[in-house]
Amino acid sequence: MDFYKYQPLWSLLKQVGSRELFGTKEQFFEHYTRTAELSQNAFAFRRAMLEERWEQMERPYYNLYPAIIPMLLNLRLDIPCSSLKDISVQPIEVRLPETLEALETPGLVWPEGQIRSLIMGIQPVPESVDSEYLTPGLVIAFDIGEVDEHGHPILSFKFFPLREDMTIEEVVNLLPPHQSFDVGVPIPQETVTALVKLCACIALIDRDSDIIAPDILVADKAKWEGASEAARLALLEKAKRRGKNGWNIGSEIQYTPHYRRPHPALVRVGKGRMLTRIVMRKGSVVHRGKLTSIPTGFDAEEA
Fold it and tell me: Which of 25, 92, 102, 233 could bridge to 66 as Cys pair (CB 3.0-4.6 Å)?
């Protein structure tokens, strides 16, 4: 299955042949961030913050399969936004599928565009409208297929504070859209809601969930079955060297004929059951040996 890929600034520089102007990746981001500050371009500044850390982590990503998307979007997230603080959400790319099946997903596709890929992470954001107080928030930069005169993606942004007194469902529209939101391709409110919900669900998926599996090289999939832990780590490192530092969400549901369809559910886990996570309920895998537990904390150590 083919997935849309997020196009980072460092890759765009290579396309236009301008990398030599900055020397190293670190020097480029230092220049880009400083320029964004001087021009008071908040979106460019947030993008630089997301991408610099993401590049340092060797570009981790999730491939999101069509079968799991409606299950996540149907989940009611009536839990405090602060639940996302319990997981170490560092910048990670989420790739959506190019298949026609995915186009049937309500909210993610509309006549003028569709959610293709995104990168999300935690950054300081205003606690409320006109507030000068900053609090941790979830920041999402997403590609809807809009491009500039050079054919480069024009990203859209959405962010919201992780407040204790509001649920994820309630906080979606807390901060008003930027004045530039109506410029270019219009984005329906239904799409913004679906996007935020999808990102929150991905962040909350339980780290031991059966629906997450490493995106290893195709040639190594047969070796993965029955391999020792050491051998699997070697295969993961091999895949990372080839640029595959990611995981698949919902691939087993998509392809395994003996997977009885489950539904996602919010549960309390951990010591004292203080953490909220998403697990799959009322589903079973006949060939359970095909599945593996992959961390979803997004930390560099876990990537």
Answer: 102
